[in-house]
Design goal:
The protein is mainly β and about 260 residues long. It is about 5% helix and about 40% strand. It is built from two helices and 21 strands. The strands form seven sheets. A six-stranded antiparallel sheet has the order 3-4-5-13-8-11, with no helix packed on it. The radius of gyration is 22 Å and the shape is globular. The termini are far apart. Bound molecules: 5-phosphoarabinonic acid and manganese (II) ion.
């Protein structure tokens, strides 16, 4: 009998609570707040403001009880909350496996991106419910929420792979993911309130019975609210599944989005 036939734990099933990402049985639960992500967003001032302004939870990681030891396959569910800091989407810290071994992610809910960097090449995989993202050995990985709801995924990884966060601090991740500025602006006009897109598209104008709002191609709509006008996405099929993402070179100045890979 080989040693692999006598694993340290017994076979077991895990129940997954999809609504709040609970596992039963459950292992460690990790909560990463904004203050845990020091030095990772390009805009350090925006990061400091977010820490001072309530230090929000950016993501949680709920693990199963499978131990991180050789030959085991631990699993965890990561939930990244929606948000932006300095225009950069909320994300995980990102890490490299000190023992270069592969890993798989399975998208469960929401919309995200899996950013991969091997020190020279950067890749971006769009992640939706049902997408399996493969992380080959030697590629550092960071997950990003590019939607307006929590992005949740399952990770399965070799128990001896490890997590090296210093590698990302030292080498970066090749790219950063920012929300494309859609130019949406709301402003007060002479005869009332007006909202419009900077380039084209959304326009809302006062009419006899109030405010005329019309959807545009990308699903944006303007509506009157109690205290004025606000713009929102239409709650129908036109609603974009995820925001448009601008992938910018890792060292690009904060607040100045540029499109394209380096
Ligand atoms: O094992 C993994 O790659 C994931 O479970 C991550 O650890 C998780 O998504 C959190 O990311 P990070 O470890 O970079 O903070
Ligand atoms: Mn990993």
């Amino acid at each position: 009998m080989t040693t692999s036939a006598t694993p340290p734990i017994q076979p077991f099933a895990i129940s997954f609570g999809a609504d709040n990402a609970t596992l039963e049985p459950q292992g460690q639960v990790l909560t990463r707040r904004m203050s845990d992500l020091e030095g990772l967003f390009a805009d350090g001032d925006a990061w400091a403001r977010a820490v001072a302004d309530g230090d929000p939870v950016v993501y949680t990681v709920v693990s199963s009880p499978v131990p991180e030891v050789p030959r085991e396959l631990p699993q965890s569910i990561t939930t990244i909350y929606p948000g932006e800091t300095g225009g950069e989407f909320w994300m995980t810290k990102g890490h490299q496996h000190p023992d270069p071994q592969g890993e798989i992610y399975l998208g469960l809910s929401g919309h995200g991106g899996l950013l991969l960097f091997d020190g020279e090449r950067a890749e971006w995989l769009e992640m939706s419910p049902g997408t399996i993202g493969y992380i080959p050995p030697g590629w550092a990985h960071r997950s990003v929420n590019v939607g307006d709801e929590p992005y949740r995924f399952l990770a399965v990884y070799p128990g001896s792979a490890g997590h090296d966060y210093g590698w990302v601090v030292e080498h970066g991740m090749g790219l950063r993911a920012r929300r494309v500025d859609n130019g949406l602006r709301a402003r007060r006009a002479d005869n009332g309130l007006q909202a419009r897109r900077a380039d084209n598209g959304l326009q809302a104008r006062p009419v006899d019975d109030g405010l005329q709002a019309r959807p545009v191609d990308d699903g944006l709509q303007a509506r009157r609210a109690d205290n004025g006008l606000w713009a929102c996405r239409v709650d129908n099929a036109a609603r974009p599944a995820a925001a448009r993402v601008d992938l910018v070179p890792f060292g690009a100045p904060a607040g100045k989005p540029r499109t394209g890979k380096p």
